Structures are given as structure tokens and as C-alpha cells.
Amino acid sequence: MKQNDAVFQAVCEVLGTSSFSEAVELTKEQRESVVGIVADGLFNGAVDFSTEAKVKYNTAAKIRSYTSGLVSNHLRKDKRLNGDTKYEAKNPGSRAGSGDAQLKALKALKSTVTDETTLSEIDEAIASRTNALQASKVKTIEINSDALPEHLRYLIAQ
Q1: How sure is the predictor about 94, in pLDDT bands with cuts at 50, 70 and 90?
Q2: Is the pLDDT of residue 131 over 90?
Q3: Residue 141 phi/psi, 5° resolution?
Q4: Is the pLDDT of residue 9 over 90?
Q5: Can you tell me whether residue 107 is helix, strand or coil?
Q6: DSSP characters for 32-73?
Q7: CA of 124: how far to CAs of 103, 110, 127, 129, 157, in Å?
Q8: Distance (Å, whole) CA 65 – CA 84
Q9: What are φ and ψ of residue 140, in 5° steps?
Q10: Distance between CA 36 and CA 41 in Å, rounded?
Q11: pTM
Q12: Residue spans per domain, the chain
């Protein structure tokens, strides 16, 4: 069984219903019950769990910890549980450039500085580096001008 289906079925079992008209709000005890049900399914193989995940989460305690996050994730994102709303991240793009060593170093440097002039200089460097990283991700699109109607071909930069 897929993990999202396991979470949905566990919530239905704990709450005693199979459909929800608004976002599901669980009490602490209900949430613990849902986590327990899904964790048991992961541990005994009834719920899908990749081979890599089985190696990484190889004890009942680790599986339970993983399952707690899994349940939270599905309560937010699964339309069957969140009142049929599209999930939107609270801080989209907040991790942009997080794998870049130079950007990490600039942010670390910023946390050590208190002088306003220096802070603004570091902020400019961070913005510049972030823009450079985003620019490097821009895809080049090739358009076959012969396939376009004659009157629209002038729109392609030659």
C-alpha cells in the first residue's frame, strides 16, 4: 500500500469516518494513534518503504520518527485530508542556493557581522550570488522558425 493511502486510512480508522468536508485536525492522542498505525505498517511491510529507507530507518524508533513527519506532511498536502486545498509552501524559495558553498559562507559571514555598512555589502554579495545561481538554471529554448507561421517569425531573436 502506498504511504499516502496508509496515512489516509489510518486517519479514517482513528476518526471513524471515510470522508472529510474540511481540513482534518487531530488531537495529540489521535495523532499518536495514526502515527502508530502507519509505523506498524511500515515496520511489518504492509506499507511501501524503499530499500534505501529500510536501511536508513532500521529500528522501530527511527521508523516512528520518520512516520511522524510523514503524517504531518500528508495532513498538509493530501487533498482528502486538508479540505481539498492545494498545498502552498509558507516560504517558497527559502532554500534557494542552499547547496552552494559560496552562498553558505556569505550567510555565515553575515551572522558574525554587526556593522551596518558591512552588512549591506554582504547582503549585496548574497543577492548577486543568488541571482547568478538562478541565471545559471535558465533553460535555453530552441524554436524551429520554419515551423512557425510566416507572420510570427520576426518574434524569434536571431
Answers
A1: low
A2: no
A3: -110, 125
A4: yes
A5: helix
A6: HHHHHHHHHHHHHTSS---HHHHHHS-SHHHHHHHHHHHHHH
A7: 12, 11, 5, 9, 32
A8: 27
A9: -90, 130
A10: 9
A11: 0.61
A12: 3-77, 101-136
